[in-house]
Amino acid sequence: MGKNQKREAKNTTDTLGMSSTVRTPPRCPCIHRRRRVCSLFLCRGPRSATEIWREPIPTTDSTPPTLTLTSQERILKRIHELYEKGLNPGSDGSVGLLSIAADPLLQMKIYKPRKKVNVMLIGNHSAGKSSFINWYIGESVQTTGVAIETRGFTFVTSGRKRDTLKGDATFAFYDHLDGLSKFGKGISENVFSEISTSKDRNFSCVDFVDSPGLVDGEMEYPFDVTESIVFLADHVDLILCFFDPIGQALCKRTMKTIERLNEHHAEKLAYYMSKADQVEKEHDRQRVLIQITQNLAGRIKNSHAFKLPTIYLPRDDLAVPIPNALEEVCDDIDKAIRLTVQKNLTTMRDDCDAIVAEVANAREVNVARRRANASATAKGWALMVFGWFLLATLFYTAVLEACATKPVTTALRTHALPALAHRPVFRDLVEGLLPDGGRRWFGVDHGGAVAMGVLFVSFLVVQFVKSRVWKLSPTMTKKDAKRLAGYETYVKEVKAVREELFKEYFKQIHDAA
Q1: Is 439 found in the same domain as 390?
Q2: Residue 501: its pLDDT value, please?
């Protein structure tokens, strides 16, 4: 390989974590000047879905080549890229499904699937919510203790740099939080984000929402905490309810919140008795479990499938082994991730089908509009010609009435007719305009004026009808039609990539089994 060729070759790591060699593409030799249109639709040869899926994906991040992504994370990230950046992120002409749907020719509204699973934790104060998050990600990002440590909502997410966002920065980072401010003026000062660089477990696929500890009594929150939790429940995939065994698990505010969540989000809820290691005697744990179950029985749906496992953070100094279902919590999170992958793949298929259907509909509408425009144009021309006829008749009637007046008649007979003696055609024309002494307009008084009025009104009516009938609807140009055809082909390629993603998803399930 020559020096120039070596300079052109660049080792990159695509979003699938595979190292590959990407050469700088040559400039397109075609005649198209708009590189976006050219590279997107006109100058690409036919490619198979496998080629599209396997080709390297340019990336501008600084992720080390040795850091690989999990299969589920790769799929979620790829789906997100297909919506935002298209088949070849970073390359000219690559457009995402969101841009295609928002095109004025389609005017569709689709939403990009989240590339992470949102898990919200609720429970009374000191129930172990923050401690669980710290344990799951392997980093102490949340303050823990017996006192009320979490008074607001904290979003814990993964990133490349450790950072903390407050108030408005968090609202800007999570666009779905816009409606949260309606539950109290003080909520913006009590919303935070913790960005961690941890890669433990499946944290890279999860965003945790740590909710305020729920207590009764004189404790006042600067916002409606129950309704805020219910609002956020619309935007999460899993809700973990932690009950501690030291009496606060049965507080009225916690039970009220769970009852509200069961109205519309019963399938998202999972219940656990946390800090089970603080009750070492078996019969005491059973009594606590029975008390919690009895209080929840009348507030939850699907009580026949109700489970309340005991969990606690691992420790080595237990005198008596205590059942610990902590891995079940992780399994619930993993299950939510798998369901989200399936849901996002299904959503992408539905959105692609909707775009293709809308393209077909836009073509049908365009054909119908062209036909309607042709019909309207024909009617418009007919009305316009008829209007000209009425206008000419009105002008002729006005000339007849003018010639019937005595001064004009005298002037024509005295001067015009003698001057036209040698031009019989024009003489006969002028004589035809002069009154012949008989009764004109069928004997109607002022018949000429009446005829002129009728003709003028008729002309106005025809003009009004023409303005209403001769209205043309906007139609697509050849360039627009070509762009639509390009969208249709492009979306079909995206669907083919989606099939490859599904195959990879099934493969990782098979390998895991």
Answers
A1: yes
A2: 87
